Automatic annotation (TrEMBL):
Residues 1-11 have a biased composition (Polar residues). It comes from Helobdella robusta. Gene3D superfamilies: D-tyrosyl-tRNA(Tyr) deacylase (3.50.80.10). It comes from the Eukaryota. One of its GO terms (molecular function) is D-tyrosyl-tRNA(Tyr) deacylase activity. This is D-aminoacyl-tRNA deacylase. It is found in: Cytoplasm. The keyword Isomerase does not apply. Coiled coil: none annotated.
Amino acid sequence: MSAPANNNTSFNNKGSTSGCSSSSSNNSHARLLIQQCLAAKLKNETPEATIELEIGRGMVVYVCFKQGADGNTVLKLVDAIMSLRLSTSDDGELVTVVDLPGDILIVPQACLGGKVKGKSVQYHSNINKEEGERLYKEFIQTCKNKFTPEAPNNKLVAGIYGARQVLSMDTNGPYSHVVDL
């Protein structure tokens, strides 16, 4: 089987409401966008510093919390990331990111909660910023608690909630999945 073509994709986004939009018709409490990648780099810009993160083969996971999200939502999201067979192994089989083995880059992306109305996007279903940041931190810690013991040689890194972010990735797809929970 031949190797998939590489697509180089770059995004500029902010952890609040700029960057991308999506329309949603269900009553989910959170949304993930999972993108398989060969490599990815994320630069977080805060007033204090610029922090650069990078991963090798694995997945970039964008996460958005909506109204009604809680600790149970976080657990379901982490279970989805760790157990869904969304990564392609060297022999072409679909495996989990843990079984690949692969790295994970988590990017806060409130824009995923947007709903198209006319010629604009509204974010009325998104959780408030403070609660979103709290759940995001809980989500990262829960991912680390589950991922690190299962895949000790793999890397899990996460962007900063609310920080200006610049993302670059080499994809082996397009191979993206939206998960609403």
